[in-house]
Specification:
By secondary structure, this protein is of the alpha+beta class. Helix content is 31%, strand content 24%. It contains twelve helices and 15 strands. It has helices at residues 22-38, 78-85, 91-103, 124-141, 202-212, 227-231, 239-246, 263-269, 289-298, 302-306, 324-333, 351-354, and strands at 44-45, 54-55, 66-74, 109-119, 144-152, 162-173, 188-193, 219-220, 225-226, 255-258, 276-281, 313-319, 338-346, 357-359, 368-372. The protein is globular, with a radius of gyration of 23 Å. The relative contact order is 0.15.
Length: 378
């Protein structure tokens, strides 16, 4: 068998010549150190750079029956907008929000998070900007960023391409788990305002923008800023405010729903028992202008918009009627516009008396949700 020919490169093939710059990775770590250091909790052991993040679990001994909750997610094709605008410090809020706000749905307190960044080429300043955004969002959510990984994949990703993902773990007392088992007919559904598109439906949004031939630097009067600025608006991170709501004396919360892929109706149905319907009135809120813009530019049917985008409601809370006023007051005091958007009914009510129903999504044998009426105009 003949020997392979020698590489043309003098001195042979190195890791650097293969496209991986270890020194650039080290520089990125140095740039992100300070921001990551602020995203911590007293239970965290060790510092940045260990093989594993460590968390002192003795804090859980105060629980009678601690239940761990975990979630993992990414931010989808929103990264294409960040790349196009060359702005990378906000995408971290999208990542953290997508992960920790799923955990708080069951009433759990997110404790720690790790992130994973894959890129075609390590640009230290860009990596540091992404991770600094993740750390800032973790700090806001009171979650420790205990570790992460930046992987350089030359040949698989282009030099400016990257994707980011994360995972988090939280804890809740077994008796305090929120969900369908608590929901009852007569409960009221509250809608918590989103900050915009959040991180779902960007494949649809980007397709609509491309179809319309609009550039990201185009100023859009009804948005009050450029299209790119609107599309890059970071996801609102709700977890800390919702945890405080759940723990507020005199406020009872039966269920929470994070409005992500699938839209409001399908995600609310996931946290309802099969024995109930929820009827939501579109006339209770006005979607921000960006949703109407996407609908018009792409002639997107309302049904498709509603099962793809949040349409202005980023979270739903199901509470008993006597908890509505204090719950709304608490959330409004945190800067989250909140309104009553619907009510829960016994499933024995005829379907046509409630409205067209969206049933449990993502494999969940849950309840049903009807969206009725038309949205208010601004």
């Amino acid at each position: 068998m003949s020997e392979p020919s020698a590489p043309d490169q003098p001195g042979g093939i190195t890791y650097a010549s293969a496209g991986v710059d270890v020194e650039a990775g080290d520089r990125a770590v140095e740039l992100m150190k300070e921001s990551v250091r602020r995203a911590t909790r007293p239970e965290v052991l060790g510092g940045l750079g260990g093989f594993a993040g460590m968390f002192d679990a003795s804090a859980l001994t105060s629980y009678r029956r601690p239940v761990l909750a975990t979630s993992t997610d990414g931010v989808g094709t929103k990264v294409a907008i960040a790349r196009a605008l060359d702005r990378h410090d906000t995408i971290g809020f999208d990542l953290v929000g997508m992960v920790v706000d799923d955990i708080v749905v069951c009433g759990a307190e997110p404790l720690f998070m790790t992130d994973y960044l894959a890129c075609g080429s390590v640009v230290p300043e860009r990596v540091a900007a992404i991770v600094s955004g993740i750390a800032a969002a973790c700090e806001q959510a009171r979650v420790a960023l205990v570790g992460g990984e930046t992987a350089e994949h030359p040949g698989l990703l282009g030099p400016d391409e990257y994707d980011v993902a994360g995972a988090a773990t939280g804890v809740v007392e077994h008796d305090d788990v929120l969900g369908p088992q608590r929901v009852e007919p007569g409960d009221v559904v509250l809608g918590l305002a989103s900050s915009g598109l959040h991180s779902n439906g960007y494949s649809l949004v980007r397709r609509v923008v491309a179809h319309a031939g609009w550039e990201l630097d185009r100023h859009v009067e009804e948005l009050g800023r450029t299209l790119g600025e609107e599309l890059l608006e970071p996801t609102r991170v709700y977890s800390a405010d919702l945890l405080d709501l759940v723990r507020t004396h005199g406020v009872t919360v039966h269920a929470l729903s994070h409005v992500t892929g699938g839209g409001l109706a399908a995600n609310l149905a996931r946290v309802l028992p099969p024995s109930v319907h929820a009827r939501l009135d579109r006339g209770c809120w006005t979607p921000p202008p960006v949703f109407g813009l996407v609908g018009r530019l792409g002639a997107v049917p309302r049904e498709d918009l509603e099962r793809t985008l949040n349409l202005g409601i980023g979270f739903a809370a199901v509470v008993p009627a006597d908890a509505v006023d204090p719950a709304v007051a608490h959330l409004e005091s945190r800067g989250i516009a909140t309104r009553v958007i619907g009510e829960v009914f016994d499933a024995s009510i005829a379907d046509d008396a409630v409205g067209p129903l969206v049933r449990g999504a993502k494999g969940v044998d849950g309840g049903s949700v009807a969206l009725v009426g038309d949205h208010r105009t601004a």
